[in-house]
Amino acid sequence: MEILLHSGLEHPNTLWIAVSAVVAFVLGIGVGAARVGLGSALRDIVSE
Hints:
Layout: H1 2-7, H2 14-47
């Protein structure tokens, strides 16, 4: 029980903090993937 107190799992908003962290991670991966795809498409257009 002492570990739970120190890890912050009793915080009333733990669920929302975890959900927002996962959403931010997924959006970051998506933005990175889109940026790589857009850069690749632009390189193809410029090289033609």
